[in-house]
Fold these 2 entries.
Entry 1:
Amino acid sequence: MANYYLEFEKPIEAIDQHILVLESEVGSTDHSTELTNLKAKRATSLTKIFSGLSRWQRVQLARHPQRPFSLDYIQEISPDFIELHGDRYFGDDAAVICGLGTIDEVKVAFIGQQKGRNTKENLHRNFGMMRPEGYRKALRIMKLAEKFNLPVISLIDTPGAYPGIGAEERGQGEAIAKNLWEMSKLKVPIISVIIGEGASGGALGIGVCDRMLMLENTWYSVISPEGCASILWHDASKAPDAADAMKVIPDDLMNMGICDRIIEEPLGGAHRNSAEMAVILKKVILDELAQLKEIDPDTFLERRIDRYDKMGVYTES
């Protein structure tokens, strides 16, 4: 059960607290009927709230501090996961988790951007913002996956690549560009899943793929709504308007041919039932891998060229 509530989730907070109080008294008093009624009321309230979310509200959900992160999913769906560290050039980047594991006997390589739950963890993880060594570490693992014929699962959740001076000095732009180039010709299937935020080149640097999936309450765009609002209107408070203008949510991206599949979240969002969300994600990934299994490795480049050629089409008058 959540203990942090976004503004539009506040009507559920009182119900949740009442349920917690009654559940703590189980054994001393029989509250079974009242609990059943409260849970039914909560489900009704959640359905009402979450059936009419705006784009900006979905952006807020994608950033929910209790939302499952990459490592949460990886540990749930691949208990034997082994993390690999370092880019063999400069160092390790804790903003990205890389390694090998199995999903129901299917061997895969994982790459996942990782945020923190508190200030200390976020400083360690750099708020999920990768540096050049992170992109080079990811590429090293992808090349390892290609060598051993393992599909790549990329879990994306970042506000963008780190824009610090040190990152620029170590070749941030070049590292992202090289990943785009190398991923496009990788001879194994790549599945990218937006599990939270998918912002800018920070997301695209591990996002070239054969299938792009998005959890229901996520967003994906060239810039954050606040960044866009600051540029267009010099006012970050107009972020909700920017989110609408940019069309950043999964439904929009499906209509544009960018997203291939929307993964439904548990009622109330992934943060309200992370275990169920992991089960859903595992099933979807296995389904997608089964569909990609029979593709000739020598055709991946052409398929990806064709895929990305269809995006951003324009006509001249």
Entry 2:
Amino acid sequence: MEYAYISALGQDSHRFEEETSENALIRLGGVDIPHTRKISANSDGDVILHAITNAVSGFTGHNILGFEADDMCRQGITDSREYLKEALRYMGDAKIVHVSVSVEGKEPKLKPYIDRIRESIAGILDIPAASVGITATTGERLTGPGRGEGISVFAVITVKKPL
């Protein structure tokens, strides 16, 4: 069988809340990470999964965030894994074979969590963890996320689609 390989790009960003707390958690790629400020969002604010969801929507042409996800939020479904799973339903016989994620933010430092995030994303997408790449940068303080105001994420998916 012949396949087309198609790439799609997704992006998302969220601000941190102003209030600080010693016990705050943020969720990135389905992994809870201790932090001093929560992410400001209606959902769990998982910018990594939101960016991947937007990449899937870029492939399928069916927008989930801002549409179905808002309805799901109103129903009390705030877990971003569920938004990504909803987006995946529109892929038909296409299959994600690789995802590359670039995270920009001054904080938190992600190095201790990268492997867990890769495993989490791989589990959701049903691909090997080796097919999930994650990089992180501070952006040299040139943007709001680089100055510690929030987190911005770009995600590129590679999709294998039968011809």
